[in-house]
DNA sequence: TTGTAAGCGTTATCAA
DNA sequence: TTGATAACGCTTACAA
């Protein structure tokens, strides 16, 4: 089975006694070929079960019609949604996707990127891993003439196309909402500060406090609480303070917020009356917890489509003077649910 | 940026005044090349920022070290987990993944498969779409000398490698569990019967009833209830029967089970005392609903790894006589939670 | 409209 | 151990 030889354009050419170039032209639907022979060629190709060898075609044309995607984990809701969005838009344009996961490890991320460069992908789409420090490998992508698009978690010092969420604004709105509901001591569960997105979310939190003239209390800010377990741990610490918070903004994720909710429930603290909770990401489960969790929707599938379309636009304009915006910011949406409805 | 010419082995050869073939050999770490020159070549390659053109290499070698994956939706938990598993195992072997989604449409599935054939992938891994009827396109994969592995949703009449769940056994256990908890009228929410997995789950349900000498009541079997909405709709119908069921096995998915739970809650029916609910898939949310939902874990990441490793084993044995099992069945695990704990 | 031939960047074969 | 050369299957000037 493995060694079956495939039909090539030469086989078709030989059978019809014409030149391979004509076959190629016909199969590419060129208009420089007689309609009748074109039909004949297409028919024969089908009969012989011909399949174009994209490898050869791409090699010759110097492009692969392939987009490489690198994400920390394929099976995390946000990323799988973004990928689905990229796939949808790419498929329409006849592009393929090669997907890699970095497992949040810079070392693996580098290998993934190199593989994609070797594969001659036309574009690399990446959301950088949590432990990434330097970005030589990304610079390398550019040096190899490959378009680079960063999304969500971006290295801001690198001048590439970017599609991001307005994390700061979203966080500002979330915390403002908490304030307006009457919460007075609002805690923050923050993520690794080497990632821009988490710095931005913290900035939004601080801005909101400032806006309402509320003090920043360091004891209410918990570092590195971006899993359910770490969220729960941070919450236990917070709720055992002499003056515990009356609201927690789990800026890292809904998983973290879930950790908060579970600890609060276990401690007999009522949500939202005694403790308000706001998460981030609009994971499916936030709708069905008791109470349901207020969170922020990032329009992840749309984000994926935006990434892909940004690439296609950039391609179309590549030799024109038209200026394409380098950074697209998507405004996330605050979704208010029961976990923060204190004020009614 | 786009037109930057990449370094080729000829550039390296020219610079060092040696033949390209030697460069190729050195870069492939062949032992037929002088250690000293090998080192020199590798060093020069790094200096010139050489990246192998995998396209050319694959074309020449007649293999792509790429596995194509076709799933209904990338962003469904089960599939994204399987993909993550495939990725992990493939990465270790130096294989790449090209991912497509069929959107449950046979028409798109066919296009995806053809694209993958054109891409000369070495192996196609597929879980067929819900509306798939015939399988010519899959036969075509085999005819093109490409290894085909089906997983989860398989076309049984096609003799390929398969990795499946023992759906029948799992369903049997689930329904048996319901019976043993004291439920007397157990309803079934079934999925599209053109998919083998749903036929198997139904068979497991019927077997369980038979095992306990319970009658099969057609009014308790609801067709095509495989989304949350359809599950909810089916549940309303069931609970409004003159003799409503006291347990519902949502064999299609946890989403369906969630629909059941929401309707029951809305109607003031107590779970599990008045109604037992069992889902399928062990989605993350089943753990955090009130009450938590009994379900069946399919070991999806493990399934993905199994798929990839099956391919690699098959490759290694391809010219040996060793017989590799053609079908690997993974035994799912019943996870008992609050929604069915009637008997205590 | 069709054919000829070169070339994409590798690797494999053969010879030196 | 190294070099020259053909070939993988396709596309594209250029010529006919």
TrEMBL record, chains A, B:
CDD domains: HTH_LacI (cd01392), PBP1_LacI_sugar_binding-like (cd06267). One of its GO terms (molecular function) is transcription cis-regulatory region binding. Residues 7-61 form the HTH lacI-type domain. Gene3D superfamilies: 3.40.50.2300, lambda repressor-like DNA-binding domains. The keyword Transcription regulation applies. Keywords: DNA-binding, Transcription, Transcription regulation. This is LacI family transcriptional regulator. It comes from Mucilaginibacter gotjawali. The lineage of its organism: Bacteria, Pseudomonadati, Bacteroidota, Sphingobacteriia, Sphingobacteriales.
């Amino acid at each position: 089975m493995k060694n079956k030889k495939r039909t090539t354009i030469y086989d078709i050419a030989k059978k019809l006694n014409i030149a391979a170039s004509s076959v190629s032209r016909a199969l590419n639907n060129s208009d420089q070929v007689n309609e009748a022979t074109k039909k004949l060629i297409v028919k024969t190709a089908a009969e012989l079960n011909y399949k174009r060898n994209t490898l050869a075609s791409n090699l010759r044309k110097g492009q692969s019609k392939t987009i490489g995607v690198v994400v920390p984990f394929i099976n995390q809701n946000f990323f799988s949604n973004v990928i689905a969005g990229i796939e949808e838009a790419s498929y329409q344009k006849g592009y393929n996707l090669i997907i890699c996961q970095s497992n949040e490890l810079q070392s693996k991320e580098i290998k993934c990127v190199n593989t994609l460069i070797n594969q001659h992908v036309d574009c690399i789409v990446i959301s950088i891993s949590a432990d990434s420090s330097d970005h030589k490998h990304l610079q390398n992508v550019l040096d190899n003439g490959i378009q680079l698009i960063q999304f969500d978690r971006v290295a801001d010092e690198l001048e590439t196309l970017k599609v991001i969420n307005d994390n700061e604004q979203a966080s500002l709105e979330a915390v403002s909402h908490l304030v307006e509901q009457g919460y007075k001591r609002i805690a923050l569960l923050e993520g690794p500060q080497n990632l821009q997105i988490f710095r931005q979310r913290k900035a939004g939190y601080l801005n909101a406090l400032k806006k309402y003239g509320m003090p920043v209390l360091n004891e209410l800010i918990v570092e590195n609480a971006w899993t359910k377990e770490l969220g729960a741990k941070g919450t236990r610490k917070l709720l055992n303070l002499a003056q515990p918070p009356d609201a927690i903004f789990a800026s890292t994720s809904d998983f973290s917020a879930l950790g908060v909710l579970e600890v609060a429930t276990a401690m007999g603290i009522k949500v939202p009356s005694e403790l308000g909770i706001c998460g981030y990401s609009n994971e499916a489960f936030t709708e069905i917890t008791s109470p349901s969790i207020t969170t922020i929707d990032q329009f992840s599938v749309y984000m994926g489509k935006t990434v892909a379309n940004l690439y296609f636009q950039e391609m179309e304009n590549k030799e024109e003077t038209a200026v394409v915006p380098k950074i697209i910011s998507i405004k996330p949406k605050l979704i208010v649910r029961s976990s923060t409805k204190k004020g009614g």
